[in-house]
Amino acid sequence: MAESHAEETATTNFQDAFGDVGALSIVELGGERQELDMPEPIEAQHDCAAIMATLFDLFRDTRLEASAQAIAWGFVNSFHFEAQKLEREEDTLCRDLGEMTRRYDPSEIYATEMEELQLRAQTMTERRAAIECMRDYAADCYRAQSGHPWSPARGSKVSSGGTASQIAALDFLKARAQDHREKRNPTGPLVVFSGGQEWHDFQQLWDRLDQIKARVPHMTLCTTAQRKGCDMIAAAWAASRGVTVVAFTPQTGRYGNRAGFVRNEQLAKLAPVEAIVCQGSGLQSNLLQVLKNARVPTHAFRIDGQAPAPTATKRQAIS
Prior knowledge:
Strand order of the largest sheet: 1-4-3-2-5-6
Helix content: 40-55%
Radius of gyration: 22 Å
Distance between the termini: 7 Å
């Protein structure tokens, strides 16, 4: 399984992240310049896939099978946690570098310090890009093995390569307000999606999403951030199509019981080009009305409009 997945997935991102690096590096403050190689791109890709496949294969058809997905999620999240830490350190170094350029000094000491700081920042950028690349690939393996897209418990996952990004709503709104970096501020047309937590006819929703994407190829999908049912189906579709997802979690700490309704108003104010709303709770009914009032073309799906539910069968082992 690991070998076949590695062969089917392009290695371009690994070649870029692991192969296109500078000759010298400074790994830590006060460290010496060193010629440290990156892991071989194909080895990093293959071993990442092998770890994920081995985990699922080990637990499959045993009483531990239900734990495989949770443990695999944690493996991907370890890369995500490290990538976030490196990004914060990278931001600090780049800020220091910017401040240093504004207080130019023609001395040799200044030039040496500037070169070292620039090399430290470049090294941190390369480390962060490599870890992000492995995280994105591990998340892709997770989806292939579990059938569910990987997403962080909180915050944002911004992909440097070709996989879809999971962007938290607060980050997205802040990015729009502050004209943040493009990777955290998708500029494509927005499509809103929401539905109940009980829904089995995924094909019905995937077909409609495919139709919308055919009309709006550079769309960004905004969901109501539920981890099962319709929103999970939409997130899985987005992961398979490489579409960025913005997950709008209600801000209950700020708005209390009104949080879901405030979130609906926020979605409408984003001026989406289309929307899909599946029957669910009162929040979905409210969102449908809010979108109609905003004159957003909306596709409404009723629970009784689904195809018959399939008979439950045990998941077959993947050879």
